[in-house]
Amino acid sequence: MSRTRISAGLLMYRFRDEALELFLAHPGGPIFRNKDYGHWTIPKGEVQADEELLDTARREFQEEVGIEAHGEFLPLGWIRQKGGKIVHAWAFRGEWDETHKHVCNNFSMQWPPGSGRLQQFPEVDRVGFFSLRQAREKLKDTQHPFLDRLLANLGLAVS
Q: What's domain 6-154's superfamily in CATH?
């Protein structure tokens, strides 16, 4: 019997020179090392037993990018990714100092495959703010509805 995996995440945004910018994360590890467009994501993670969705989103954001999320959280609903995982999301207005390296937790995986060697990799290897156009290029297609819902929440035209 398959169990649907449920994750929760946060989409941080800011305005620079009146232009909306969105904060995205690039998955770490050797599989995604050379993949860019269509592979970035909102910082997110799986919900633990007895954990509220928004609490998961805030915890995962802290673990994956080293920023404590606070302020008003705008609900962005949920989407189903290609692999079947359901992702719930919220947006909040925030900042990140690009001069500092982000801090995140690591995961273990056998690498190279079949080698029997477990190696540690960062869950997220890069983060950054992107214009709406750039975010649409970088973000996984299935997460694009989060961008549209944020624009609607902010009263901006969906483009």
A: Nucleoside Triphosphate Pyrophosphohydrolase (3.90.79.10)
